[in-house]
Amino acid sequence: MNRVVVIGAGVLGASVTYHLARAGAHVVLVEQAPGPAAGTSGATFAADVAHLKTPYAYHRLNRRGSEGHLRLADELGGPGWRHPVPHLQWADDEDGRRTLRENAARAREWGHDCRLAPASALRDLAPAADPAACAGEEIVVHGGGAWFDAPRFVRTLLDAAARRGTVELHYGTGVTGLSRDGERVTGVRAGARTWHADTVVNCAGPGADRVAALAGVRLPLRRVPGLIMTTRPLPGAPLTAILTVPGLDLRPTADGGVLALSWEIDARLRGADAGLPRELHRRAAALLPGVARVGIADARTGVRPVPLDGLPLVGAAVAAPGLYHLVSHSGVTLAPVLGELAAREIVGGTAVTDLAAYRPDRPADDAVHDENLRAMDRRGARPSAAVHDAEAQAEV
Ligand SMILES: Cc1cc2nc3c(=O)[nH]c(=O)nc-3n(C[C@H](O)[C@H](O)[C@H](O)COP(=O)(O)OP(=O)(O)OC[C@H]3O[C@@H](n4cnc5c(N)ncnc54)[C@H](O)[C@@H]3O)c2cc1C
């Protein structure tokens, strides 16, 4: 039986563990935190972003991720973590509106349910929003949108994997070293414990470059922090859409509150600053009057693991066979497809061509290929500073 050690119990570690177990492997999952989804997967906006992604091949991969959530819902007995809602966007200047129209046309051409609508459509699609706060006369409506309860997704996958009887879950177990036989990685060390494996899978999210460094591999990764603020449940109408609007992203939460994120605020993140969650709350209240009547339930900073060219890092580096990396931004959308394809490669032993473009040894490339990520950088994320500012996830 194929023996695999997976490092990290976020969305990617959980998905590959589930798919490996389903393919008949014996899996030991080690996670440094006391429980699952304690890293980025517990502090994420977690919208389905497939319709926003470019270039086309990467867009297709994300689309397979979205479809994979539906497949997994069938396999696992219910879509408890996936919440379908429309995704609405608008801009506040002519340049922004032109970009949105162009992106909408491209999304339609690539097969998405995407249309322009008058701003008055907001009354039906998101009655919790104040239509007067909508700058401009038109909005973009992505009909097939969804947001994911990522921690619930992780728990569902790991529960299903554990039921197969060939999976061990070890929490509170930080990997401190890798066993080698020549160049080949043959296991992990965590304190006094050692596990041997045919393959070790590095799903350590924003810590993946540090795990890779244990084998002398340099993963081209940057850490970009993002502040997430959630409110208590709104009185009256809940939010019924994802909103991406100037200076703010909003989505519903499972208990009827909202979750807010702002690239502009992320650009000012410097460790703990109680003023920034309050500013997010003020921005959300300006758009959703109900927010003004409820307080902040939670605020935390998640750290995006962002490969330098924006595309996933999947597979082993030539310098350290046996250590398979599985690292990506937009990992919630992508987890079903990346976990499935990685498990197929690891258990089947032959390269999957759909992953060929994402090998960690690909030539270094300074260009960011994903338009969605380029927009993130334009709107304020400071890549070089972010690497140093967000060394650890911190409660704000
Ligand atoms: C603000 C924000 C907004 C986002 N919005 C979206 C979005 O809308 N849509 C989307 O699809 N994605 C989004 N993302 C990205 C997405 O959340 C991440 O890509 C995804 O959660 C990464 O999952 P992961 O499993 O790779 O990493 P993680 O969830 O961080 O899991 C890695 C795990 O590895 C563990 N670990 C690390 N080092 C070790 C070690 N040495 N030993 C043992 N365990 C270790 C960590 O404790 C952690 O639990 C967003 C992220 C952020 C921060």
Give a summary of the structure in a few sentences.
This protein is 31% helix and 25% strand.
Low-confidence stretches: 382-396
What is the third-level CATH name, the topology of the largest domain?
FAD/NAD(P)-binding domain
What share of the residues does DSSP label as strand, in percent? 15-25%
What are the secondary-structure elements, in order, as H or E?
Answer: EHEHEEHEHEEHEEEEEHEEEEHHEEEHHH
Q: Considering DSSP H and I runs of 4 or more, what fraction of the residues is helical?
A: 25-40%
At the fourth level of CATH, the homologous superfamily of the largest domain is: FAD/NAD(P)-binding domain
Q: What small molecules does the structure contain?
A: flavin-adenine dinucleotide
Class by helix and strand content?
alpha/beta
Q: Briefly, what CATH class of the largest domain?
A: Alpha Beta
Shape: globular
Q: What is the strand arrangement across the widest sheet?
A: 5-6-4-14-15-16-13-17
Mean pLDDT: 92
How many DSSP-defined strands?
Answer: 19
Number of helices: 11
Would you spell out the secondary-structure blueprint of this structure?
Blueprint lengths: L2 E5 L3 H12 L3 E5 L25 H21 L5 E3 L2 E3 L4 H16 L4 E5 L3 H4 L12 E5 L3 E3 L1 H14 L3 E4 L6 E5 L2 E7 L2 E4 L2 E4 L5 H6 L7 E11 L10 E4 L2 E5 L5 E4 L1 H4 L8 H13 L8 E12 L5 E4 L6 E5 L3 H18 L22 H8 L4 H7 L7
Parallel strand pairs: 1-2, 1-12, 2-8, 4-14, 12-19
Antiparallel strand pairs: 3-7, 4-6, 5-6, 9-10, 10-11, 13-16, 13-17, 14-15, 15-16, 18-19
The structure holds flavin-adenine dinucleotide (FAD).
Flavin-adenine dinucleotide binds next to α1, β13, β17 and α9.
